Amino acid sequence: MVAPMTRPRIYALIVAGGAGVRMGGEVPKLYQPLFGAPMMRHALKRFLVQPDIEGLMAVIRPDDLTLYEAAIAPLYDSPATKEKLLPPIPGGLTRQDSVRYGLEALAPLAPDFVLIHDAARPFPSQALIGRVIHALDGRLGVIPALPVVDTIRSITGETLARETLRRIQTPQAFPFARILALHQRAAENRATDDAALWLAAGEEITYVTGEERNRKMTHAEDTALTGLGVTKVGMGFDVHRLAMGDGVMLGGIRIPSALKLEGHSDADVVLHAVVDALLGSIGAGDIGSHFPPSDPQWKGANSAQFVTHAAALLEAQGAQLVHLDITIICEVPKIAPHREAMRLRMASLLGVTPDQISVKATTTEALGFTGRGEGIAAQAVATVVMG
Description:
Radius of gyration: 24 Å
CATH class of the largest domain: Alpha Beta
CATH architecture of the largest domain: Alpha-Beta Complex
Largest sheet: 5 strands, mixed
Shape: elongated
Number of helices: 13
């Protein structure tokens, strides 16, 4: 009988030790807002949602600790994310120093492989990270790269054969023990990336296809050159009937009441409208196509899992939620006392800050089924940026 293969332990190291002064601005570039969130948060989220990555550590400037903690605060609202995101460590004077410090900090965890990524590339897709992971084996380094399409000429007039050139990106992945040893051995070198050390030691690499969107953010205009930033809008609407019960689920929280909402799941009309808005923004159908009411597994289900599913689909397509605007239409219960709790809960589920969530309530002046207190309706509008 053949013993089952042990799943390799894969960790990610996010290098964020630079000041980023060429970007301009009042704070370092990694903490400037970009498509609704700090650049640092974008970079971290891309790796945190990868199921094959066991843990993630950032190497940051010591002076940036307060900015880092503010940037990642929404990520800690998810227990799974909080478990994977390790405490940051201070970086060194050079990128190479920072990588070595990070690898040494990860060493006690005994990774089999490590992905090393520059936080200044905040938009690697899930497909790209997956390609890098899929290509891992026990000896090769894995490097994402793109072809050179322009004519390249040295200042001495020599034209270089672009067929032999590649534009190198991160994340770069390596067997952990070997890349750690190379960094420790070459501590005084100043390699521009980790693959340079790997190749200088005679090790082999394999290339996977990189992405134009995985551009390094160096200057303010680079954000426009990614080809990202297209805005899309999705709208959701839902209705559920009120009945006698023990509390109403709305916006992810239970509101004490002698009523309840009827439905196949927990009938959270607000979260259902939110899910449809999120799905609509990326053209991914509606809530019924993902969670059919005819399926018994969703009987009494917590609608929070529908929201996190929709959020994962956005993440997979590189869509960033910028703002979510919700209107609840009902006579009872009163929404105002619970509005802030709803915002906090939905922000937690979606990995955004509460100021990106708006919750409003209105009545229909005693008209219609909501006016008669027979049910509750909700509508949601989600604004996302493809990033």
